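cache lookup: miss for this entity combination. No prior model stored, computing from scratch. Input as submitted by user K.M.:
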Amino acid sequence: MTDYTATVTVRLKAGVLDPEAETTQRALERLGFDLSDLRSADQFEMDLTADDEAAARDRVTEMTERLLANPTLHDYEVSIEAQ
Amino acid sequence: MTVAVIQFGGSNCDRDTVQALESLGVDAELVWHEDGLPEATDGIVLPGGFSYGDYLRAGAMAARSPILDDVRERASEGTPVLGVCNGAQIGCEASLTPGAFTMNRSARFQCEHVHLRVENADTPWTEQYDRGDVLEFPIAHGEGRFEIADDQLDRLETEDRVLFRYCTPEGEVTDDANPNGSKGNVAGITGEGDHVAVMMPHPERCSLPDLGGTDGRGVLDTFADV
């Protein structure tokens, strides 16, 4: 068994409105910064022990699909690192 | 007819819902989610509020609590289920209905009266109205924007599963009349069977004459018929 740290990034699908990001972008522009777009995402880190990286990835992917991401709204990425 | 109004930590429309149902002569009781559904449950309401503090996404935690397995089972057996506001968010998160309710276009919590056009009067929830009727309902939500993939919205519309759309007082479905940016101005839909419905506006807050309006009685009266 190996200890891993998984990082899951959950972001809105392209085309889904992100009012919080739009508000944040406007605030940055009011501060005088120049930017053409801003996107927000949630990131989760979890520590887990698994037989190998594939098993860790499978477990984290299932957790993401069952709770962390909503398939109607989100795309997600999973990355796994051995500790 | 006993309607179970399910309480989660953070529900805050549960008592209002019981009171509104009782005013219609419907026997209703509060059911704490950890206690499970009583055997004699003939209808289920997922009420509004902020279950689990809206952590992660509104409704996400409550939708994965064990009582939702019971709710899904009863729904599959034909028991009427209504999700209102946070209950609607829970219903979508629990896949009782398609789509999702997410942050308002304004990025603000909105508490106001809106107008709804009845899109399908041939469901248990709307049979007391006529298609095209304009109703006045309160909304109170920060995450009420209905999102769904275009092809799924097409399917909902083809199958006549949109109950209500946000509209002007004259019944026109316009972007200005859309309080939260919901796709297609959708305010409420049914599940695979029309005995399951979710909606963001609050029928229980416009069912008692003393509260200023009774347009919501038709929705809740569904439970009097079963």
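stored under new cache key. The CA atoms of residues 65 and 71 of chain A lie 7 Å apart.
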